[in-house]
Design a protein that fits this description.
The radius of gyration is 20 Å and the shape is elongated. The chain has one domain. Helix 2 packs across helix 7 and helix 5 packs antiparallel against helix 7. It contains 8 helices and no strands. It is mostly helical. Helices cover about 90% and strands about 0% of the residues.
């Protein structure tokens, strides 16, 4: 156990620059998402809020999709997202696409929270805390780790491709790479469960309380 912890600490220290780069990339996406909200004109905001309000109205009047269905669809989404990052790490040339995916994830979070706060004020902030924050507390670190590992593995492959020296086979690092991604997919199930059984229920209760005041 101690050796594994030491290996993990050494790994993070060795690749700290990559992890920091990925975090900055994600945060940049969040900031851009908030900027997009502020740059929208009144008509655009009203058009988008019309659909959001209709969605809220449907929630307040009808029974929504079951939690089990949300769990299934959310987990499949996370698995597909992680699998794409996994493949991009193997392709080497797909590394910029991994950067774009992580940036877009941040942009979606920033835009979603920013738009709710912009249109609903304190209620929007509270709604975002209930509906967006719970699962993203797990999902965001998972995606940042996945994107970082994708970049690290791509750099390992590049070094092996352009090295004139006889190097060790790539099978061992690939095995570790695949095992960590499999673990991240398992952790994403916990994030999907939070979304299905915590965030979804809390969002429904809050929206119904708003519409029945």
């Amino acid at each position: 156990m101690y050796n594994k912890r030491t290996l993990l600490i050494d790994h993070v220290r060795e690749h700290a620059t990559i992890y920091i780069f990925m975090m900055i990339l994600f945060l940049t996406g969040v900031i851009f998402g908030a900027i997009i909200v502020n740059s929208m004109n009144f008509v655009q905001k009203q058009d988008l809020f019309f659909y959001l309000e209709r969605f809220f109205g449907d929630i307040s009047k009808e029974d929504q999709v079951s939690s089990n269905e949300i769990l299934k669809s959310s987990f499949l989404y996370h698995v597909k997202y992680l699998f794409i990052l996994f493949i991009l790490g193997l392709s080497v040339i797909g590394l910029p696409v991994a950067w774009i995916l992580l940036f877009l994830k941040g942009l979606v979070v920033g835009f979603s929270v920013g738009f709710m706060v912009n249109q609903l004020g304190a209620n929007g902030l509270f709604l975002a805390s209930l509906s967006i924050a719970p699962q993203n507390l797990l999902v965001i670190p998972i995606y940042i780790i996945a994107g970082s590992l994708s970049m690290i593995f791509s750099m390992i492959l590049l070094r092996k491709l352009f090295s004139w020296r006889i190097s060790q086979p790539v099978l061992q690092p690939f095995g570790k790479y695949a095992a960590v991604f499999a673990s991240l997919m398992v952790f994403s199930l916990a994030a999907a469960a939070l979304e299905a059984y915590v965030a979804n229920g809390a969002m429904e209760m809050f929206i119904k309380s708003l519409y029945h005041e």
